[in-house]
């Protein structure tokens, strides 16, 4: 679909919707009702009140592309992680190397880097607190009120590193009346889970309220190391959260939150070596090829062809502990509401894996990361009936944000006896000695400070016409100190070194949105905004030159138009959006061959463009029947990307990584009343089109391993059935019902590729009791 026809199709659909709705506008509720009244009276099907723009609004009234899932929907569907939510949202891709290495892309924009030297392109927020470390951003979604997915840059209200979008996770707050829930379940792969939560008033007048939640989920992994019998890539998650709400006086509220999360070994992640190249039939051309291996060393290939089993010489492990505390103070000043959010997060992780994914002892890795993050945000938000709102003609928000992260990371590489450097090193000794392992350590200390001031105002020219203007100024200061050591010369670090690098980045990011409401059920908008992602430092450099190589910040200019509409007494919803991105200095991570071995390097693609169209349609033909259809189309390409660090490759005109041209999600739910009980049947099918894990579109001219980095499109089918007996619900579910083989990600290590298997069919039952 070319650029002109794509936008023409969008405009044709949009004009049809606008024209048809305008014909019925005289029967719609009055558009001049106060905003808060319109939000209340609009409690139709699928409506969720969100705080995406830092004030409570109906999702259909926000002129941005946003998808929200409520807590009941999440719980009923068993959506307990962001990777299970991603397939249900247009133009979103989620892959990972495990809990510590997420790969979240929205509209083709994302990152696979995870260390403190580089940061995510999609901001993740928990109760409005920015989670800066990718290795600690993605946990279990338990006791959740809702999840909001904002597509497109959110530079004004959310700030740095939301250049691709933002995800808000809102946990359940204390309640004025007592409530409780208990849940337990089992699944295949020896899975079991327990969860419980309770909340309510502590004092008689309700001025002090609490909520407490705790959970444990465990499931054996679906990938087996045939050498040891160890199973990994499962679930091993324990967590707890406590919230306390205090209202010392009318108009003031203090919220205190404490949370602890732990992930253990069963959630360890590892891949299986696939070799290099592809045959005409698509299979690996040389599955026995292992990167970094000495020529005479051959792996054990007596294994299934599936990525769910293989011979490894090293079992993956995982140990992650996360602690966080949040103090939120909110007070009514009459003309505005003052909000202060103070948060501290401590993260300790240790993981390990067999990097080459084979039976050979070539290269394994242990990663140890520690992080202490502090954030402080102050906001002043106008009250609709306040004096500075001028009788509802102006809504505004101003604020300041401070972020500090002090992190350290040690990457310990064990260079094994089957590696080419160790075999060569041993043979070069006089007299020759037996090959022995070597240990190389890359240590880094990071210090990041960021400060921002921001503001946004919406002018209501009429009851239908609105203009939103906003801007944010950001200043980042980043420092890193690398110290590399080696036990022998020539493994991957030829000689020890130390390097210190410091950088300062600034950016101003404006936003402008013009929206018009033809009726409370039909609005159109056009927006212009920019985004900024901070520059950074290389991951685990093996020499001083690489350690001193700094990549530049990303900048984006976006143009978007959209239509939001409800029909047939809000039983039919059609939301459309179309967008164009001009991207400068897109940060691209590649792993290349060097003299000492593979090296991860992040460089900048000078120019890229992304065009897309999205549609979200929901249909509610009756009170007991729902259907949904989401579709995203992407045309995302590098315009100017030359990788000249020893390779001189030109990627101009090729597709961005992890940007499938088509994403589709179709779902349905049927609720069948049975007297006082209810049976629910639900299904969701998500389809990803073909995409590429590495730059180069699978073309071997970019490297002999590149063909194996192309991913064929695949679909995932989830089914669910439940029956409700008064306060008890029994649910049976199956995810990936067709047991589709796919890869969550790949590790392109020089000329060979290590593949990471996607989750197979999971079948389970769960019982839930609510009070």
Q: Your description of this structure?
A:
This protein has 771 residues and is mainly beta. It has a single domain (3-770), classed as Maltoporin, Chain A, CATH 2.40.170. 7% of the residues lie in helices and 56% in strands. The chain contains 6 helices and 45 strands. The strands form 9 sheets. It has a 22-stranded antiparallel β-barrel. A 5-stranded mixed beta sheet has the order 3-9-10-7-8. A hairpin with a 2-residue loop joins strand 43 (743-749) and strand 44. The chain is globular and about 90 Å long. The chain starts with a helix and ends with a strand. 48% of the residues are buried.
Shape: globular
Largest sheet: 22 strands, antiparallel, barrel
Structural class: mainly beta
CATH-wise, what's the superfamily? TonB-dependent receptor, beta-barrel domain
Average per-residue pLDDT, rounded, comes to: 88
Number of helix segments?
6
Distance between the termini: 53 Å
Question: Rounded to an integer, what's the Rg over CA atoms?
Answer: 26 Å
Fold-level CATH name: Maltoporin, Chain A
Q: Could you estimate the helical fraction of the residues in percent?
A: under 10%
Q: At CATH's second level, what is the architecture?
A: Beta Barrel
> How many domain units?
1
Query: Could you name the CATH class?
Result: Mainly Beta
Residue stretches low in confidence (pLDDT < 50, at least 5 long) are: 22-43
Strand content: over 45%
Work out the number of β strands: 45
């Amino acid at each position: 679909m070319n650029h002109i026809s794509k936008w023409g199709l969008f405009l044709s659909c949009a004009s049809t919707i606008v024209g048809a709705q305008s014909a019925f506008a005289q029967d719609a509720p009055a558009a001049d009702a106060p905003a808060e009244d319109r939000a209340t009276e609009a409690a139709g099907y699928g409506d969720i009140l969100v705080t995406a723009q830092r004030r409570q609004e109906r999702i259909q009234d926000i002129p941005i592309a946003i998808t929200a899932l409520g807590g009941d929907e999440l719980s009923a569907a068993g959506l307990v992680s962001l990777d299970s939510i991603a397939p249900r949202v247009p133009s979103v891709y989620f892959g990972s190397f495990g809990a510590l290495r997420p790969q979240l892309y929205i509209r083709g924009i994302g990152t696979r880097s995870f260390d403190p030297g580089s940061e995510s392109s999609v901001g993740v927020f928990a109760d409005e607190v920015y989670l800066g470390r990718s290795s600690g951003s993605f946990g279990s979604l338990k006791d959740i009120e809702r999840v909001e997915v904002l597509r497109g840059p959110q530079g004004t209200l959310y700030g740095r590193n939301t250049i691709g979008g933002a995800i808000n996770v809102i946990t359940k707050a204390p309640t004025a009346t007592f409530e409780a829930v208990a849940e337990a379940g089992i699944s295949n792969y020896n899975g079991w889970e327990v969860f419980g939560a309770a909340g309510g008033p502590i004092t008689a007048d309700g001025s002090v309220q609490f909520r407490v939640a705790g959970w444990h989920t465990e499931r054996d992994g679906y990938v087996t190391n045939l050498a040891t019998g160890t199973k990994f890539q499962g679930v091993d998650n324990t967590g707890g959260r406590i919230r306390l709400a205090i209202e010392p006086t009318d108009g003031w509220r203090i919220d205190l939150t404490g949370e602890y999360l732990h992930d253990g070994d069963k959630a360890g992640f590892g891949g299986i070596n696939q070799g290099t190249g592809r045959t005409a039939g698509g299979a690996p051309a040389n599955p026995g090829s292992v990167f970094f291996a000495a020529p005479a060393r051959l792996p054990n290939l007596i294994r299934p062809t599936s990525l769910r089993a293989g011979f490894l010489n090293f079992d993956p492990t995982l140990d992650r502990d996360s602690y966080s505390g949040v103090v939120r103070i909110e007070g009514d000043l009459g003309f505005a509401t003052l909000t202060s959010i103070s948060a501290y997060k401590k993260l300790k992780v240790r993981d390990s894996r067999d990097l080459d994914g084979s039976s050979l002892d070539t290269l394994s890795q242990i990663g140890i990361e520690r992080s202490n993050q502090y954030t402080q945000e102050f906001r002043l938000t106008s009250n609709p009936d306040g004096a500075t709102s001028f009788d509802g003609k102006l809504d505004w928000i101003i604020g300041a944000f401070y972020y500090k992260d002090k992190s350290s990371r040690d990457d310990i590489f064990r260079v094994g006896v089957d590696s080419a450097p160790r075999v060569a090193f041993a043979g070069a000794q006089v007299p020759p000695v037996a090959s022995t392992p070597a240990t190389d350590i890359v240590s880094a200390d990071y210090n990041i400070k960021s400060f921002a001031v921001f503001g946004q105002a919406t002018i209501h020219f009429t009851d239908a016409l609105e203009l939103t203007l906003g801007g944010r100024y950001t200043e980042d200061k980043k420092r890193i100190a690398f110290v590399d050591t080696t036990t022998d010369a020539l493994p991957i670090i030829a000689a020890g070194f130390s390097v210190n690098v410091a950088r300062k980045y600034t950016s101003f990011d404006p936003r402008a949105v013009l929206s018009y409401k033809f009726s409370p059920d039909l609005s159109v908008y056009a927006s212009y905004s920019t985004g900024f992602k901070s520059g950074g430092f290389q991951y685990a450099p093996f020499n001083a030159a690489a350690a001193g190589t700094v990549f530049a910040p990303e900048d984006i200019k976006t143009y978007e138009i959209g239509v939001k509409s409800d029909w047939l007494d809000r039983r039919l919803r059609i939301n459309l959006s179309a967008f164009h991105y001009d991207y400068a200095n897109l940060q691209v991570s590649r792993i290349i061959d060097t003299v000492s071995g593979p090296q991860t390097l992040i460089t900048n693609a000078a120019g890229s463009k992304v065009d897309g169209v999205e549609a979200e349609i929901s249909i509610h033909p009756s009170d007991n029947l729902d259907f949904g259809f989401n579709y995203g189309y992407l045309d995302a390409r590098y315009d100017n990307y030359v990788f000249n660090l020893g390779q001189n490759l030109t990627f101009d005109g090729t597709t961005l990584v992890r940007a499938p041209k088509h994403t589709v999600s179709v779902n349905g739910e049927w609720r069948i009343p049975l007297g006082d009980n209810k049976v629910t049947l639900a299904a969701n099918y998500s389809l990803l089109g073909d995409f590429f894990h590495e730059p180069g579109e699978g073309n071997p001219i970019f490297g002999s391993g590149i063909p194996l980095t192309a991913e064929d499109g695949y679909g995932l089918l989830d089914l669910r059935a439940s029956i409700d007996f008064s306060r008890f619900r029994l649910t049976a579910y199956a995810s990936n019902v067709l047991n589709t083989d796919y890869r969550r990600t790949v590790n392109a290590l020089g000329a060979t590729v290590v593949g990471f298997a996607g989750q197979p069919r999971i079948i389970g039952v769960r019982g839930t009791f609510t009070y």
